[in-house]
Amino acid sequence: CVQKTSFYGLPKIHKVGTPLRPIVSSVDSITYRSARFVADILSPLVGKSPHHIVNSQHFVETVKNLKVEPDEVLRSYDVTALFTSVPVDKPLDIILHRLETDTTLPQCTKLSPAHVVKLLKFCLNC
């Protein structure tokens, strides 16, 4: 049974006024199985970048011995609406390149890297 996506909010109890964090659930939507399929293909690539941070504790471990030079500044930003404001073309190009250089891809799927990215783009645009 295919259902429409559902929209709801989770309260940010640590923020003044308890605003809601918007959540769009696409479980059982028309693209859910395709997105799950693509996610399974891409999951082995996650965490293979030297810039990947797993969680807050990993971030602390990563920067605790970081030396900030006198002409440098360490900054932190509070990002709002990150996923709704990220253009997808550049990440899709990066994903395509990572898939093209992944020697284990044929073990995960018969799809070409270009077809995986095309399916991902379809899921992102729905």
Written description of the protein model:
The chain is mostly helical. It has helices at 32-42, 56-63, 82-85, 89-100, 105-108, 113-125; strands spanning 6-11, 20-25. A two-stranded antiparallel sheet has the order 1-2. The longest helix is centred in the C-terminal third of the chain and has 13 residues, at 113-125.
Number of helices: 6
Strand order of the largest sheet: 1-2
| Element pattern in H and E | EEHHHHHH
Q: Termini, distance in Å?
A: 18 Å
Mean pLDDT across residues: 88
Low-confidence stretches: none
Fraction of residues in helix: 40-55%
Task: List key phrases describing it.
126 residues, 2 strands, 6 helices, two-stranded antiparallel ribbon, mainly alpha
Give a concise summary.
The chain is mainly alpha-helical and 126 residues long. The protein has helices at 32-42, 56-63, 82-85, 89-100, 105-108, 113-125; strands at residues 6-11, 20-25.
